[in-house]
Amino acid sequence: MPKVLGMRCRECGEEYPMNPIHVCELCFGPLEVLLDWELLEGKLTREKIEKGPKSMWRYWDLLPVEGPPTVGRNVGFTPLVKAERLGREFGLKNVYVKNDAVNHPTLSFKDRVVALALTKAREFGYETVACASTGNLANSVAAHAAEGGFHSYIFIPDNLEQGKVIGTLVYGANVLAVSGNYDEVNRLCAEAGDKYGWGFVNINLRPYYGDGSKTFGYEIAEQLGWKAPDHIVTPCAGGSLISKTYKGLNELNRLGLLENGGTEGIPTKMYAAQAKGCSPITTAIKEKYEIFRPQKPNTIAKSIAIGNPADGHIAIETVRKSGGWAEDVTDEEVVEGIRLLGRTEGIFTETAGGVTTAVFKKLAEQGHFGENETVVISITGNGLKTIEAVAGKLGSTVHIQPNLASLAEALQTEKLLATV
Ligand SMILES: *Cc1c(COP(=O)(O)O)cnc(C)c1O
Ligand SMILES: [Zn+2]
Asked: So where are the chain's domains?
């Protein structure tokens, strides 16, 4: 039974059939997937979802595909970790980390959007897929293209971290390193998309790509015992994840699947996190601008360095509507954020996670979170991909000889005494 009615323009409401298109012909507004709510309401139950696979595909009924997943079948359902020690540092009792740093297979939340976009690309009949990426999308499109037997063209800025570049080349993808920032790469891709007719994950397939992020929100609620949390802190690049997480939670409420939902809506406040070196979304929220002002990125948080975010308006609207807020942090605070999450929770996140953890700290210190309220920190990528950011900033190893005398000597030094 078809559960998707088609596409609808977010701005003017014009409807379209389900095709690889992403902007409205009438007003150039972004297109969204239109689910058949009459078909879903009252029929999709918690029990049905809970019996599904331990992956994002347990929410198949709410995703815009017609058949079963053909690519990325094991993506998602990552741990929601109770962060007791991190919470205690700020006097908070219910802090959680949604840990997509261990998402299968490429260790970032991008595996969700790509699993959906490439399953959809196959349904549309594409044999070649492509993307513009700040790194994690490159890794994920290349990996899933390999799994699904697609040709792939991956466009990245030429200054990315080694882990992101090698973690793309290894899958045998065609990688094009463009001398320019992400916004320039993306503009080139929009032109290439028109010329070559590839399935561009974040351009003509963007409405499907975006819906993959809804599963981040579904999982948080299910893992909290079908409850929407009070607060979610999320890093923003293009602004899709934060908007779709919120959309996902509201869909569960619409279906009556939440313990704490209802006609009043969900209690969740959304908080945007960015680096000061690229903060068009958080600046617009903090300065109360009508529309964001594009920036030229300059930060170590490269995975979220998008100066002209495609879903920036929607992200800002989401934060405002939910009653949340936004903060941005310096590159120094990003490194401190990575170390804070590492030393309190044993989770090694990349620079985007450093941004999110540092922004969580800032918001906690500003008093946004109540002691017993539920706070979820969105950790979206893995630290092993951006070791450049922390190399040389973590203290050093203590060098010893392979004998007990040398060990005993080392243990006498002030540095190690505290630990014995
Ligand atoms: C892409 C990305 C984001 C943000 O994604 P948007 O949906 O574009 O806002 C956050 N964290 C990491 C690690 C990413 O790679
Ligand atoms: Zn329109």
From this structure: 1-40, 80-106+211-390
